Amino acid sequence: MLKTMYKRRIYLSYIFTFVLLTSITTFLIVDWPITTEEWFEYLLFYFLTLAIAIMIPVSHVKYNKVKDLEVAKTDKHLIHLDHLVIQSNVSYIKELLLFTKKGQYVGKAKVSKISWFMWPFTVLFKSDLLTFIPWTYTIYDHLDQKCMTIKRTGWGIKSALTIKDEKDSHIGTYVQDDLRMFNIRGNLFDEDGQLVLPIKADLTGSFRFEDQFGDVVADYYQGRFPHEYTTLFRDMENHIVYFHRDLSEREQKRLYGVLMFLFLQLKT
Q1: Cα separation of 187 and 174, whole Å?
Q2: Whole-angstrom distance, CA of residue 211 vs CA of residue 206
Q3: What pLDDT is attached to residue 33?
């Protein structure tokens, strides 16, 4: 899956470059620029195309360095991990791929429902759109078996996330009270409406979740990643979340629900 992720980025770079070059060339044929201002506008589009085109050799280099690496299959289920590496996958609507830090694929979060009239806007706005509209995502394990679902309701900054297990039984709710430029605030409740974890994260992505006793449940710091594993994960920014407590399966799924919600909103 790690190799597939880089390969898809190569293909997408080719597609975007071709589409932009075709569009610019067509506009030049139909409406040849005359003034300096018009030429400047076209040059901006060419620079954008060049920036995307640069992604092609970069992605090729990344892919060539991992294509021959043998990554052992995971011996642990997604729900029983002490850490999680979260990567954005190339897709029409944002998708998250989940790995161990050794490169073992353990699952993914994929959209399963979104309002039909929002589909045309997803290409332009990506995670920005997911911050403000209702949607449903399904989390799958490494065998592509459904583990849980998360459903966002509400429009705009304040929203609620319903968390269900693989049998569609309600196991928790995350209520986001505030989303500002520098922080996200909310509360995670169990199926009975009892508060289990206050949530606070800044929009860079960094967070440290502590329970009512002050014990750290999970943490993530933007830009911090074990150097010895950067031969596998070659992006400028890699995202690894550490879990510091043994949680029950239900508790872990509730926590995963919040994590997927946060990373779908963040610029990952």
Answers
A1: 6
A2: 17
A3: 73
* Amino acid (1-letter code) at residue 90: V
Q: What is the CATH number of the domain that holds 199?
A: 2.40.160.200
210-235 pLDDT, tens digit each: 887 788 899 888 766 665 665 666 66
Answer for the pair 155, 238: CB distance below 8 angstroms, yes or no.
no
Intra-chain end-to-end CA distance of the chain, in Å? 18
pLDDT tens-place string over residues 103-145: 888 999 999 988 766 666 655 555 567 777 889 999 999 889 9
Structural domain of 194: 78-265
Number of domains in the chain: 2
Instruction: Answer whether 79's CB lies under 8 Å from 43's CB.
Output: no
Question: CA–CA separation, 171 vs 190, rounded Å?
Answer: 6
User: Model's pTM, two decimal places?
Assistant: 0.72
Query: What Å distances lie between residue 210 and 72, 198, 213, 251, CA to CA?
Result: 33, 7, 8, 14
Could you report the per-residue pLDDT of 189-199, keeping only the tens digit for each?
Answer: 999 999 999 98
* 243 and 255 Cβ atoms separated by less than 8 Å: yes
Are residue 105 and residue 216 in the same domain, yes or no? yes
Residue 73 CA to residue 86 CA, distance in Å, equals 17
The reply to whether 27 and 138 lie within a common domain is no
At which of 13, 39, 66 does a domain end?
A: 66
Sequence-separated (6 or more) residues with CB below 8 Å from residue 169? 191
